[in-house]
Amino acid sequence: MSTQRMSAPALAPAGGRRHPRPARRQRPLTLGAVSTHAALIIGVIVFAFPFYWLIVMATTSPSAIYGFPPRLWPGSQFLTNFKVVLDNTSFGHAFFNSVWLAAVIALTELFLSSLAGYVFAKCRFPGRNKIFTVLLITLVLPTGVALVPSYQIYVDLHWINTYWPLIVPNAVTAFGVFWMRQYAKAAIPDALVDAAAIDGAGFFRTYWSIALPSMRPALVGLGVFQVMWTWNSYLWPLLVLNDPAKYTLPVALQQLAGTYGTTDVSALMAGSLVATLPLVILFFLLRKTVLNNVVGGAVKG
Amino acid sequence: MRIRLKLAACVSALASLALCTAACSSGSPSGTTNASKPTITIWYGAGSISTAALTGVQKEFPQATIQLLKIADVETKLTSALRANSGIPSIAVGIGNLTQLEPAASMFVDLDQYGFKSVASNYLAWPVNEMQYKGEQLGIPIDVEPQAFFYRADAFKAAGLPTSPTAVAKLVSTWSNYMATAKTVQAKTGHVICDQSYTSIYLPMIYGAGYDYYTANGVYDPSAAVNETAFLDSYAWGQDKLCMSDPSQYITTSGWNSAIVQGDLVGFIGPMYATQYLTAVGTSSAGQWRITTPPVDSSQPGSAISVFKASPDVSLSVQIAEWMTNAANGAQGYEYDALFPTTPGSYTMAAMNQPSAFFGGEVTGPVLGEIADKSVSLYVGPNSTTAQSGFSTAQVYGIAGGTSPAGAWADGLKRAPQA
Do the Cβ atoms of A258 and B47 come within 8 Å? Predict the structure, then answer.
């Protein structure tokens, strides 16, 4: 996108003449437009306020939070609050662990889900639809049902207190396969796959050079979601990781909670704020692709 | 293109191998023994035991390698580990509800078999008794939560009432006196000295009677007369609007914190851990708060330290557990970690007899010690938590919705597990 913008002047006709910029048409101010914008502004405030409140809480003291009238502007105690987090948790380790785990899990999931999605969308083999249906059924099983059996499996494999129980079950998920299959079905023309075969491309070459680039928007969308899920996951990492040096961010932040639920709310919010920032940055960097993909998925699905 | 593809495949394979090595090599057993020293793994939660015990344990037991692991949620992890019979620590610190783990009782060490009986008299008898299951001592009580009457001296003064802890103790020496005082404070200042009828009145009433939904013989009895009386008496407080206007607010909720900060809540009966919340949010009223004895002496159960058979050296682990909960560490825990010790020997130590600036220079340790000492044993059974939740919901919903006392009581009986 940015390359196109930068090269645009070079495409201007010789002699410095440029195409005149079309005049922006002023839309008449209608009651409908005003009410739509008013509703949207209210919606933005409602959805953005919790995040703003997180910033206020992270930068003030607990007594300021609960005062009346409530403090609505950020304070200056962020560093003090964040120091409590650093003193009482393995925050640095946990941040690093969350980053690399989210990256590894997302990359593995994208590779395997796109491969499986491509196969379900474009390869014909006996039982394809039945296998896909079975796969979809696993989507409706509640996560809690599998918790204890999964734990037992990883105990038997001697994988407790390692990262394997976090990586392996998420390496490929039913949702990821479903997501990629739906996109591949609509985005990759059969004729293109056939043409690649005629040109001598094998299965993996076709997947790598034809299918994967075509699925890029879906990959970005799924990648963002997968990073988000891994980043926020709490219960499963809590159960399988014992060593505080291996904790991920949500588990590390829970270390701030005392035996009787006593928690330094401001410190917890300061930690949560820092923990949330990578996700916010990621979303802003990729928001256009994600939003286009979500809308596209809705139309294509 | 083909070369690039192969290169990518090689890089992926190497990365996977590196990952395998990293992830696999990080597994470690919970307790191991080498030729010279056993490794004793201790799981503990934040604020679950005296910091002095944690920092001093390795020095005290040089014959073992002590591995201290700060666990985010000890009970959840312990439940999983016991269920899978794997990854069990040598010692777990901060078990809040031992009865939930009783199905795995066979994995706990009976501490009496390793000499705990000889030191049991160093601890309050009632919490020690609460940690027995089928005659076996499954845990050592770390702390208890004596329920005191917290009040603001300035509010009592404004209401024309005496302000010293001794005088206020007389003012609230019975439930009817407490109610009369609450009415006076409310009439003169507009503020309340009861946060929630359930936590400030009902729980002290039933705990003071030694009842936690079971008879002393361990029979589950939610419809006991003591429960009905406590429920209906406390319900009257809510109906008469003598507690906070939102009946769902209690210690730990944001409404409670706001009421403290804004000065609407100027007194309540609560467990010792309320001090941590008070000192965190009540900075503007620091120096005004006081602690005294409530109408009835009662304590909420605290948390336990347990030793497991998975320990590579059970006898040493029991010694470690006893040392971590001894009187000296208990007193340090009171001074620095807001944990009330179960060892009466701590109560006379200097660490528990320091004046508290937040409580206007009052020496609070002996007041709480007296309450803890006079508290009675509770039989805490598997239904205790669920029953408490049922009656709590019935009372909160009933008061908020204007239900009659009899209707709310019937609702509580319906919500509690059936006998």
Answer: yes
Residue with tokens 């794997």: B86
Q: CA A188 → CA A123, B5, B172, B324, distances in Å?
A: 12, 21, 79, 66
* Residues paired with residue B341 on neighbouring β-strands, in sequence order: B143
Give how far Cα B215 sits from Cα of A118, B178, B201, B221, B258, Å.
65, 28, 20, 7, 38
Which tens digits make up the pLDDT trace of B51-90?
999 999 999 999 999 999 988 889 888 988 888 888 899 9
Q: What phi, psi does B141 have (nearest 5°)?
A: -70, 130
- Residue B141 DSSP SS3: strand
- A152 to chain B: which residues are within 8 Å by CB? 84
Cα A19 → chain centroid: 41
Chain A residues 74-133 within an 8 A CB cutoff of chain B: 88, 104
CA distance B234 to chain A (A): 24
Kindly write down the DSSP assignment for every residue of B46-93, as one continuous string. TTSS-HHHHHHHHHH-TTSEEEEEE-S-HHHHHHHHHHHT-S--SEEE
The number of C-beta contacts closer than 8 angstroms across A and B is 121
User: Across the interface, do B46 and A257 touch by the CB < 8 Å criterion?
Assistant: yes
* Residue B251 contacts residue B282 (beta carbons within 8 Å): no
Token output for A105: 């899990």
Q: Are strands B91-95 and B39-44 parallel, antiparallel or unpaired?
A: parallel
pTM recorded for the entire structure: 0.78
Q: pLDDT band for position A22 (50/70/90)?
A: low
- What ipTM does the predicted assembly reach? 0.71
- pLDDT tens, B328-371? 999 999 998 889 999 999 999 999 999 999 999 999 999 999 99
Considering only CA atoms, which of A119, A203, A243 is closest in space to residue B89? A243
Coil, helix or strand for B142? Answer: coil
The answer to whether A190 and A184 are in contact (CB under 8 A) is no
- Residue A231 parent element (H or E): helix A216-232
Neighboring chain A residues of B289 at a CB cutoff of 8 Å:
none
Q: List residues bridging with B151 in a β-sheet.
A: B267, B290
